[in-house]
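Researcher: Next entry in the queue.
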Amino acid sequence: METKANYVAVGAFVLACVIGLVVTIMWLAGAQYSQEYAYYQAYFKGPVTGLGPGTVTRYNGIEVGRITNLEFDPNDPQRVIVTLQVRPNLNIREDSVASIDSQGITGASFVEISGGTKDAPLLVAKEGQPYPVIHTKQSSFAQLAQTAPEVVAKLNVAASPRVLRAHYGAWNART
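Model: Structure for this entry, 175 residues:
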């Protein structure tokens, strides 16, 4: 009879530990998922290569949230609507600007939000908008890719033999 009592006590202890572990895990998971977030949208014109749900959002270089959704703008096929989930205490101003940046040359893409100015009012949703809309600009890489053909054309003109002879002849005449 005494050995059965030990088995019952050990079984009850193990069962209590398992129940305690399950309750602790559920409590921790509930605390994680009950966190409040603020949501914003940004309309990017052109490709948003490298972005997807779960992609990092940074504010002045500090990670503050994630992208929750990407969808095409039904009114403009060239625009992509990006929904951002960020910390609720983040004060995004009306003059803040979002852009797509990448970490290094071949690094992962992310959305970078500039801080704006302290005197600008806080960004709020306008009538008919589900979330406040952050203004956007092209990334530095996209601007470079857009102006590259123009720069190459100017270099071709500057390096043409006729231009070089004209400059070389003027230089020889001065010496």
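Model: The mean pLDDT is 80.
Researcher: Noted, moving on.
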